[in-house]
């Protein structure tokens, strides 16, 4: 298992500078544009994002100010054939994740079969015993999933991590497309791209299909869906408000909700109205102070009792965080095969589990070449990128590893594919990843064509997270 891959795959240009087929239409358009006008459009895009309020907060930022997520106007383009292959792998993985979640909260057959160590559940804070024996409405645990993909070659897409709790970024996917269509409408007449603008409608329909047993409707009525936000100071508040508005759903905070007659109801001008489906963007720990953190003011006292009694659907289900755990991730090839009976169509990035003595020793011996992550980490925090770290940083991280080896996994420093970004000097390659968004309901799996492409705007950087200086691109899936 190599620690470093040196070959770099550029998605637009081949080794000799030839334009790849996916980008042929875009390249023909780009070469016909005036560079000065393109620079002006790039500046206009930033103004559009600022006027729209597309910002995020960074936790721990002393300034406490909202920041723009930088937007690059060169799209990331995927062919229809590539997307069909990816979609099959994504659907297989998401179905396996849902089956895994059902199993770990019931008979734990995967543990009994010796495919997964029981300690990964028993010692995991993301595993919620309160969910044991309970089946969510419709049997769906992961209503909205984000699967982070990286590419290392023409046909080499790998899963970097799974986001089964509250995957964020879909609002930026939608706004990136709207911005591109506003700036370059003629481009979309020359290159046929699959639309993404119907995502909010599809999300609302998917959530409505997961109504709880207690929901009762008259003819023509629809389920009541609400989005639960921690509030305006949350880093993803823009997205919470955006999705609620686009779905025609209410945006609520914990203080707007209470238990009324065995249902969760929201305060309205006409009294308390029952909610059928709650798309929550509040972490498990803060969801119900009577069940989890007693000091939480963000959730709803008693909501877990109502949930377990069939009075509301919570999306995503509490306890899905166990599927985000990076130690669990390392077992995903076995998990996919165990629940589907098929070999995984999408491969994992090779992973060393630092909880295992032999792997820990290998990681300690090769820290300068590896990427090391916390098993519950996210957002690019709490990780070490060996090739870009100093000796002092590596030594300090080695001490953390020895103290808590079970808290970390390690992976090779992959040579992520690059896509061009627009600079004052023209096109320049930068590393990217891709987060497709997946909706799951009793009616099936619905994958939005494309997703959110995140780009490391600093030359040579592998960190694409917006909180760490990354930006975003519009993601195009071409029509056949």
Automatic annotation (TrEMBL):
Coiled coil regions, renumbered to chain: none
Pfam families: CP_ATPgrasp_2
Source species, domain of life: Bacteria
InterPro entries, per the entry: ATP-dep_Glu-Cys_Ligase-2, CP_ATPgrasp_2, UCP005522
Domain Circularly permuted ATP-grasp type: 75-456
UniProt cross-references to Gene3D superfamilies, sorted A to Z: 3.30.1490.270, 3.40.50.11290
Protein name: Circularly permuted type 2 ATP-grasp protein
